[in-house]
Design goal:
CATH architecture: 3-Layer(bba) Sandwich
Number of domains: 1
Helix content: under 10%
Strand content: 25-35%
CATH class: Alpha Beta
CATH superfamily: Putative cyclase
Length: about 180
Amino acid sequence: MPRIYDITRPLQPGMPVWPGDRPYERSWTSLLRDGASCNVGHLAMSCHAGTHFDAPWHFDDAGATVERVPLDACIGPAVVVPLARLAEARGERVLVRSGGRAASPEAIERLPPLKLYGTDAASVDPADSTAFATHRTLQRRGTVILEGLDLEHVPDGEYQLVALPLKLVGMDGAPARAVLLAP
């Protein structure tokens, strides 16, 4: 059995969200302890909380919504690299340990064609960006964007990625459960 790295950030009350986004909230519709027949919870949150996919529609009204993200981009060989070694990354799926920084659009342009680009940062763009040039560069290249990964305990190297967005019809993004399988 290969080693499994869960690279999903937990969704929980008080977790950081992008400035202006709705914070993660949970509550209970019914609870066994209150005499209900079962426990039933409900959630309210931004589609971009924690580990999540950005759909092309996030920055382009003509772009695909999240249920149309190509699933073959979300499953398959992936490489984990630090941002400082991004130029050396080879493969169709690249996951970047960013140290809180973002790759420039120029650095993205120099990469071979990618099916998926993932980052441990909250966004592929800097937090103060208003142009979102890296998002737009990845979208123009047809690259699926996965943000908010937890790569802290994952060594650099090659893995199998399994990360699927929730099938939220008509939405600009979706939470994901993401794992890496070590060889």
